[in-house]
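Contributing new records

If you add data, match the layout below exactly. Sequence lines come first and carry their own label; structure lines follow with theirs. Keep one chain per record. Anything else will be rejected by the validation script.
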Amino acid sequence: MHNAAPKILSTANAKIKKGEKAGYLTAGIHFAPASLSGHNVCPMASNGCKLACLNTAGMGVYKNVQAARIAKTQRFFDDRENFMAQLVKEIGAIVRKAAKQGLIPAIRLNLTSDIQWENILTDGKTVFEIFPNVQFYDYTKIVRRVLNGSKAKSFPNYHLTFSRSESNDSLVELAMASGANVAAVFAGKTLPQTWKGRPVVNGETNDLRFLDGQGVVVGLLTKGRAKKDTSGFVIQG
C-alpha cells in the first residue's frame, strides 16, 4: 500500500481565512517560491519581492513546512499527470465542503508562485474549464497575462491582479490600461487614498481580489522582512 500523497490545497493561510467573513471558502497552493525547489515558479520575481515573500509567514517558519512545499513543487514538475488528477479531486472536495457550510468556493492556485495555469492542461482542459462555476484568482507579475486578448483573460472565472514590484513599475500603466487592478505594497501603517490617479482599496481586509471592482489599486502594508526593504519594492510615503 502506498501512502496517500500529501494534500495539495491549503485552507490554513491566515489571509485567505479572512474570506469566510465575506461568505467564501478559499483554498490555495503553497509552492516553494522562486527557485527554492530547483524549478523557478516565479519567473518575474524581483529582489524586493523575494525578500518580502510570504513563504516564511505563518506556518512557513517551520522547516518541515518548507520541505513539504519543496516536495510539492517538485512533484508538480516531475509527476504532473498525477499531481493534476489529485488537484482536480481536491478542488471538487472544496466545492462540496463549501456547499455544506453555505459558503462560496474560491481557489488561489498561486499563493507563493506565478505559474501560468492557463497553459496547464489535464485531460485536455484547464482547471478553469473543469470547474466553470468556481471562482479562481491570483496575483501575477507576468504583465502579458493581464493584457487584453491574453489566454488567462479568456476564462471568465479567473481573475488576475497585476503585482507591482521595483522591477516592473514601468509596466503598471500598461496593466491599468488593460483594465487590470494593480497590487502595491506601501510603507507605514496606513494606506494612501490614491496612487497613480487610482483609488486605493484596502487589500488587507481579505484576499478576495475578484470583489475589488475595476480600476483600483490594491493597497497592501509591509509585513515581516518587507519592513526593511530598500529595493524600491515597498513604496515609501
